[in-house]
Amino acid sequence: MKTELGLMLPGGKTGVLLLHDVGGSAAELRSCATAFARSGFTVSCPQLIGLGDAAASGQGSAGMLVSEAEQALAGLKSRCESVVVVGLAYGAMLALELARHNAGAVQAAVLVEPRAWLPALPVRIPTALSGKINQFWLASIMELACSALYGRSEQALGKTGLKPAAMVGPRTTAGTLKGIGKLLDSVHAGLPSIKQPVLLIHRQSNARLGQDGSFLLQRRLGGRVESVMLERAAAAATEHPERLVDRIERFVAMLIEEIETRRGNELRRKQMVASRNSAA
């Protein structure tokens, strides 16, 4: 099977960094990337080892995920004046971590059906407990339970909720889950410090855990959060990307207008100060 190493599509001065989900690939988002490029964006969609087929090697980690995403961000930023990070599911949580550590490079984040918790947790987690739950240790417990109760079969590993690309044994499951667990712990702790505007896109028929994740993000993010519902939002990224791109494009247009307004106000302020100094 051909390995997708990532996509880079040239366009305008505004860049879109696309981050795929666990077990996913850049290839799955090719149609979405193409739709963004047709709308005039420069698009980068990297193949993240920690979230893709290469996670089967057991090498996935939170640090690797952030490092890979930051490399893609730096490459996109060198081509564009502004960058919006768009993440799908766990890629959305990585987008938040990227925004937190790169406030000067990331102007906004778009979260498409974000997964704020580990997969297939059997109970509903109240939002109030979000800061007290360690996702890394939950990952360890889930891996041990999976190995003890179900063994090494793919059917058993399917109960973790991971996609087939990551189902090659308990070691892979442990590495993938623990990497995601560390990432989620870091994101949860840093939500109030993320000041960039965020567009939260979730589906109308979202499960309770997904709704809890949406409520968590809306309440704890430090910047402005817009929340919209789009039927089968995640599927739209691969099947009908025009619907998703259209909604994100409106959000980005509003941000660009705000940025240009601030720049214009700052330029006028500097001109007024310079004029006063000259008159004095």
Write the layout of secondary structure elements.
Blueprint: E1 6-9, E2 14-19, H1 30-38, E3 42-46, H2 62-77, E4 82-88, H3 90-101, E5 108-112, H4 135-150, H5 154-157, H6 170-190, E6 198-202, H7 208-220, E7 225-229, H8 233-238, H9 241-279
Helix pairs in contact: 1-9, 2-3, 3-6, 4-6
CATH class category: Alpha Beta
CATH topology: Rossmann fold
Number of strands: 7
Gap between N and C termini: 72 Å
Number of helices: 9
Low-confidence stretches: 52-59, 152-171
Largest sheet entry: 7 strands, mixed
State which percent range the strand residues make up: 5-15%
Q: What Rg do the Cα atoms give?
A: 20 Å
Portion of residues within helices? 40-55%
Provide key terms for this protein.
280 residues, alpha/beta, Rossmann fold, seven-stranded mixed beta sheet, 9 helices, 49% helix
Provide structural commentary:
It is a single chain. This protein has one domain (6-117, 191-279): Rossmann fold (3-Layer(aba) Sandwich). Helix content is 49%, strand content 13%. With 280 residues, the protein is an alpha/beta fold. It has a seven-stranded mixed β-sheet, with helices on both faces. The radius of gyration is 20 Å and the shape is globular. The chain contains nine helices and seven strands, in the order ββαβαβαβαααβαβαα.
